[in-house]
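Quick one, T. Sequence first:
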Amino acid sequence: MSITEQIKGLAKHSSVYTVSTFIQRALGLVMLPIYTDVAYLTDKSAYADLSLAYMFIAFLNVFYLYGMDSALLRYFFLGEYKQEDVYKTALLGVLTNSLFLSGVLFVFSSFFGNLIFGHHSYDNFVWFIALILLFDGIGNLPYLILRAEEKSITYSSIRVGRFLLELTLNIIFVIVLRMGVEGILYANILASLINLLVLLPYQKKYMKGIFNKDIFKNLLWFGLPLLPNGLAYLTVQMSATYLMSLLLDKDSLAVFSASYKFGSIFLFIVMAFRTAWQPFFLKVAKQENAKEIYSKIMTYFILLGVLIIIGGSLFIEYLVKLPLYFGRPFMGEQYWAGLKIIPLILTAYLFFGIYVNLTVGVFIKKKSNLMIIFTGLAAVVNVVGNIYMMPAYGIMGAAVVTLLSYFIMAFSIFIANQCIYPIHYDYARIGLLVLVLAVVLISYYMFSLPILIRLLIVAIVPGVLYASGFFNKRERIAFKSVFKK
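Structure tokens:
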């Protein structure tokens, strides 16, 4: 199969995963007009509590999986064991661990409620969180099977089904029954449980396997080093949420979190890409031209990212003010003060996408123990930076630190990757893309750009890239053929 055909295959699966990932994570965006409406969540502190709850879920999810998801994929493709045995071993490991951790949360709910929300009366929130994590933790593994088998349509259909179910339950519990944050968590619990039941038949083939101690040791050997890496990554992603509740106030956290959701739009694309990317690069790793394929994909990924960030940075602030819900804007007016952080968060996730691209060498060479170095550096910068920047510069300071943290993750893994698995990337074209993005973002923050100028920028950028020789002859031919069609 040619390089072009393989890249098209990756693009096909990534595009399908993008739809499902966006829909899966879009609930917070779709419901934002409700969540930021005082008629449903009475004040900003309620929305802040919701943000803290999902921060806690994301944090604990790392402990529930403890690297087994990545280890399962790695040994599913490149191990010497039967795939059925690998899956059964990983499933039993995750199931046992999930039951234990959810039990701990139930028993010590007052302690965790006080730790996260600042008051011991949040026991019920912790119980809800324990159930969500239990059902989602077990349900993660059947999704991995669908990814490994490249059944992107089935994967996405189930994700879409869950979204529609959870959206319906949110409407019932939040809008009709007016249950506030509790209603949102109830909806999540029911959606997680039903989603797990739907997924069970897809793992039937692999349940014939047996638990194998040697496999479990290998899974732990590969997966456990990813646990501190996952915690460090979540520190980068989530520490601003927790520190803001301590260093500033819950109102600032609510404003930051609402705009952060829009900045996270590019994260949806990165997560969808990663879903298709890991099975793809492991599958082609033994090909002679594997490194050439990886290099081209990096260039195309950054090109797509730069175009999306430019468009998003220039126009999202207009979109969120549109009256979409019975005359209400997409985001409550009391949250608009945070809109300026969106371009920084979008760009931060571009660097996260570059980091995901660069995990190739670490996976192929089985150097997962190095991951903690990259994310650990970023985590230290994130915590120290937020402690310094947040009191002085508020939510903008937190956004700048987020961008810096993801840049450090990408840069550090690039240096290591070039030592253990060197790949020659197209530095000239990547440099041009970075320059174009920098010019646009500097203009955005330095000047008050009228909407006509913004439209002109979006129209000109692709033309500038084309005229500057960014695209090679083959790409120009492909580009022209698209327009002829």
